[in-house]
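Hi R.,

Here's the chain you asked about this morning:
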Amino acid sequence: MDVPEWVNSLPTVNASLNGLATVLLAVGYVLIRSGRVTAHKWTMLGSFAVSIVFLGCYLVYHYYIGSKKFAGTGAVRTVYLLILVTHIILAAAVPFLASITIYRGLMGQWEKHRRIARITWPIWMYVSVTGVIIYFMLYHWYGTLP
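And here is the predicted structure, written out as tokens:
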């Protein structure tokens, strides 16, 4: 299959989107803790939108390229695999958790929103941060970009 040249830039795009989602999640947390509900709402919706764009880019990249083998060995490979496995498992939950959390917030179900947000936010933050770490481990620290 011919791979369009722009597909090779998607790992960097994906890491940038994960980084942006991380920043928006952190800002959203600070905003709600300071009582700025409307700003929090729009920031969190922005983070969700960024995550959706990430997912689209991620799927396109893996459709064309498939998986990339990690080049590190020894203890760093074990660390990488631990990060990767936890990232994948938790990443599968984020769309569901985030959708429920957002729905409850938009519907004004404040107590239910708060309860699930206390679960969703740290998982979503972990997935966003580890996505960037995985990118650097795969493409910069122990490998190269395509």
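One quick note: Residues 75-106 form the longest helix (32 residues).

Cheers,
M.
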